[in-house]
Model the fold of this input.
Amino acid sequence: MRLPILVLLTSLSAGALAGAPADFNGRWNIKLDHPRHRVWWLEVSGAGTPRMSGWFVGAPGGQVDRIENLRMEQDKLVFSFSRKRDEKPLELLYTAKYEGGVLNGEFVEAFAGQSKAPVKWTGYRAPVITDQDDGSWKEGKPVALFDGKTTNGWRLVVAGEPGWFAENGLMKNRPKASDIVTEAKFWNFVLRAEYRYEKGSNSGIALRGRYEIQIIDDYGRDVGLHGQGGLYSRYKADTPASKPAGEWQTMEIRLVGRQLSVWLNGVQIHNKRVIDGATAMAIDADEDKPGPIGLQGDHGLVEFRKLEIVPLVKR
Done:
């Protein structure tokens, strides 16, 4: 029996819109309505095959987590994590459909058997960035991000939380302060910072509002993925170069496209490492556009006496 033309077209259209498993493969930058304005990141490979695997940066932490429970349910991507909070079970469930080139998803958090309202999220395919640190870039005019007197040019990420202040030529965070970001946005650059922190402290610098370089009191400890100078949860420093807490430290960060080089206290600890995607401090999902510089404020006390950025331009 021949289907009516309208019914046939409707069926074909619905089929075209539904995502095939392979459509979910790749890297995705995720935007959502989050009280801390966080951005998530997802990587999927082998969707619809026995070798399906994935990685995720998002709730409840900011580390890069391997997704152990990842599957396709008809035309839907489903993954979950089981955690504990205060020794009680915490279940995190994520689902998404591929529609019109994006992932339209929901996130449900269930703590001790009580579920919160679903949170909507949208995944956008990560862009290809072609800029390379190939010797074709030169330094432009330096820009002081801290004038030594005020916090002008910076804003709180979370309005209403404790903030930052300038005192005696230093920019400092109050206890449990919000992260702050620059009003200005930057693309390729060299960032130079001079800072110190109290014993046991923890902070970070966000590049383009997406990639966190860790600041932490780890003097005398083995270098780890969350150690000082590391690209948080992605690359550890090549060698330990931290000074003891209370001493002034220097960091120089060079970012061209996705290539990252870092010097900590004069020692090169990263050399043109390729950044796969967002990390814990990410608040800006548009990877192919300029983004702000951010400072982490809620993990410990830190003081900056110099923050200078030098845009890189083509020779």
